[in-house]
Amino acid sequence: MVDELLDAAAMLAGEASRNPSCGRRAVSTAYYAVFHALSDLATGCLLPGVSNEAEDYVRIYRSLDHGPLKNAFIQAPLKDNPRLRPIGGLIAHLQSERVRADYLPADPLLFPHSQVLDLVLQASQIVQELRALTDDDRRKLAVCLLFRTRKD
């Protein structure tokens, strides 16, 4: 689904110069491609080889949440990892732009075409970087995204 969402975002981005609503949808779709890539990564790490139709698989896949996702990257150990920190910055930026795309009032100047194209490209790059992570980094990312650190 991730690649299909990236393709859809690219297609929408191509229409954004003529239709600003397509630009907004492209930004939102690009973010959701990254979000699903993270869900895939986390589930694959914790339940390798398990069918995506299995109840446990679906439960973990659906456990990723937008708020904690952003916060996880600004806390240790992710903020201290030189491979994960830059990915987190890109994801946080894309997430903020997705919120703007989905919730701000209609404005044809909200996302210039060049910005839409850039955000879709960033989403593709994030997905490539996630897929290239080592097993250790994938596992660390999955655990940090899905489980909160207790403070006591």
Structural class: mainly alpha
Could you spell the SSE succession in H and E letters? HHHHHHH
Largest sheet: none
What's the β-strand tally?
A: 0
Hey, roughly how much beta strand do the residues contain?
under 5%
Question: If you had to describe this structure to a student in words, what would you say it looks like?
Answer:
The N and C termini lie far apart (39 Å). The longest helix has 27 residues. Helix 2 packs parallel to helix 6, helix 4 packs antiparallel against helix 5 and helix 5 packs across helix 6. With 152 residues, the chain is mainly α. The protein is globular, with a radius of gyration of 16 Å. The chain has a single domain, classed as Up-down Bundle (Four Helix Bundle (Hemerythrin (Met), subunit A)), CATH 1.20.120.
Labels describing this entry:
152 residues; mainly alpha; Four Helix Bundle (Hemerythrin (Met), subunit A); 7 helices
